[in-house]
UniProtKB/TrEMBL annotation:
Domain Aminoglycoside phosphotransferase: residue ranges: 83-247
Organism encoding this protein: Xylaria grammica
UniProt-recorded name of the protein: Aminoglycoside phosphotransferase domain-containing protein
Pfam families the record matches: APH
């Protein structure tokens, strides 16, 4: 099996092989019974299973219209394919809640105050998970944060904190994904432990940290600026990357913003620190009454 970041290979100018078993083709009309989406130029990509994959394929060409936009080597990768993104990741545990399940849960909760991506296709491929997601409007805060005025920046901060507050009104029975399967938040498992993400063990860990575990509320645990898009035309917000999402103790919401450097902005010379985004959201959450247990988490995690 190929490494995750080289899982899409070129067959010819109009077709590609994914993971050795899925055939991606470009054609003039969409399919009525297969996953298909716009290529952005009047054509369509269509995805199907390949019972007889071609023996000859090549790595993606440098000038290929399919461009890798995220590369975590053997862990995960994302490609832009027309008006969609193909995401492939190695499953931390086979019992993890899948992203398409969470997105369907959100669709059932509509109307929402933000956009979420459409799901065109999803599949478990051995110990890997593939999902094809529609593009959402706007640019990520990673791209535009330093261009925004202070007023616009603070408006984004307030809106995300408000979304966190609204989502936290949805309660679950355990610390888990929306379907009761594993919530793979690696900040709630010690790196020295086997990361099973068992709900009972996550509950025990949260109690040791000192969180109020009397209830579990819904939270997107990776609300960094790369996962939030702002449409500068109509002002709408989109949120992507619904992998590490589920029910957690409410104290974890503000705490996670303090703990996770993955929510930092890209570094840039000047007075604004990379932590600016998450520090400001945490401050706004404090204003809304959210508690934090950062010092207790640091002591428990062993940093």
């Amino acid at each position: 099996m190929s490494t995750i970041n080289s899982s899409i290979r070129q067959i010819d100018d109009q077709s590609w092989l994914i993971e050795g078993s899925l055939l991606l083709c470009r054609q003039q009309i969409p399919s009525s019974d297969l996953a298909s989406w716009s290529d952005g130029n009047g054509g369509f990509y269509v995805l199907s299973s390949s019972s007889k994959p071609p023996s000859e394929t090549q790595p993606l060409r440098d000038a290929s219209e399919i461009q890798k936009v995220y590369d975590a080597g053997a862990v995960s990768a994302v490609w832009r394919v027309g008006e969609a993104f193909i995401k492939l990741k190695k499953l931390i545990t086979p019992n993890a809640t899948r992203e398409h399940t969470t997105l369907q849960y959100l669709r059932n909760k509509q109307p929402l105050d933000f956009h979420i991506p459409d799901v065109y296709y999803h599949s478990d491929l051995g110990d890997r998970y593939l999902i094809v997601l529609g593009r959402v409007p706007g640019r990520t805060l990673n791209e535009i944060w330093y261009e925004l005025s202070e007023t616009k920046q603070q408006e984004c901060v307030r809106r995300i904190a408000k979304i966190c507050m609204e989502l936290s009104t949805w309660e679950g029975e355990t610390i888990s994904g929306v379907d009761g399967k594993r919530l793979t938040d690696q900040f709630l498992e010690k790196s020295t432990d086997e990361m099973s993400f068992d709900p009972g063990r996550l509950l025990e860990n949260c109690k040791k940290i000192g969180m109020d575990c009397s209830s579990s509320v819904f939270y997107h645990a990776d609300l960094g600026p790369g996962n939030i898009l702002l449409d500068e035309i109509d002002g709408s917000i989109s949120i992507i990357d619904w992998e590490t999402v589920g029910y957690v103790p409410k104290d974890w919401i503000r705490t996670k913003f303090h703990c996770s450097s993955g929510m930092d902005l890209p570094e840039r010379a000047g007075d604004i620190l990379p932590t600016d985004w998450r520090v400001r959201v945490a401050r706004e959450l404090a204003r809304l009454g959210f508690r934090e247990v950062v010092d207790e988490w640091v002591a428990w995690y062993g940093l």
